[in-house]
Amino acid sequence: MAETAKPGIALKVPHRKRETDPDRLRWGTVSTIKAPLQAIARFAAYHLDLGAALVDIYLDEPDPQVVEFFAPHPRVRLTQCDDAYWQDKPERARSSHQLRQAFNASRAYRKSDLHWLTHIDVDEFLIAPRPMAEILAAVAPEAAFARVRPAELLAQPDPWRGPSHFKLTRRELGLTKAELVRIYPDYGAYVPEGFLGYTGGKNIARTGLPQIRLGIHAVLHKGQPITNFERLPEVHLGHAHAPDWTHFERHLKFRMNKGSYREKLRDRMRLRDVIDIVIEDSGTAGLRRFYDELNAATPELLERLAAHGMLLTASLDLDEKVARWFGDLP
């Protein structure tokens, strides 16, 4: 059943937008991506394998070779976001990567001939126990969008094939903060949900609704949150936010200054504050201990997560899917 909440607006869903036949339902992804070909191919192959009718990619860093590679594949559409692309667009829309993401996703939404569209990143993978078309066809007809909860990938030797371990949020399981501290003894009291990435999830929007802005974590109508949505408890968005220590350390400066850890006006104790304190107190060695407690898939952490119902294990098998859909990479 669709949920409603205030403040916001309940947006009416026309009957013609309510596709309930999974055999006819078409869904897809839209992303603004700055990544190497291998990462893009893994992302695209995974979601095509899951049943996406279209993987719509805006290349934030134009690359003719990437466009050429995907040219034979009609279900992958690439747009080069070069100076010519931005020439007739609002200047503000280009000013940050968050605004570029929302602008491109909203533009794709307005042009879409799909039934459902999700705005996700190259390091995110929808995890579902059955075809997404079946799940979306069963969404309450009055729901304008569906919300998917996050699952954060843990650091492990090779998460891209075989069993991949993810952690869930305590809120999803209805656990207390005290239980979170038992899972993460040193930092569970300070880091929201014990996550290094976002904890609010993302959305899959029903297309064809008027004046929609498809943001990173929100679906808005004329700037207002849409309140009639449905949660998809059997679907998670697997987020490879910090799949290993090297990746976490390499991206930390950007995330602290301009990315997901940047200062935000309504925040109190932010993850960046915790990281600042850890670095000030014990430098890189302390930061590594912080990372390992929260994100290393040790047998002890896996056992604690499983005991609290917070462990999700899935098989991504990304390179196998790339070979099946695209053949050998150059």
From TrEMBL:
GO terms for molecular function: glycosyltransferase activity. Its EC number is 2.4.-.-. Keywords: Glycosyltransferase, Transferase. It is an enzyme of class 2 (transferase). The keyword Glycosyltransferase applies. This is Glycosyltransferase family 2 protein. It comes from Pseudodonghicola flavimaris. The lineage of its organism: Bacteria, Pseudomonadati, Pseudomonadota, Alphaproteobacteria, Rhodobacterales.
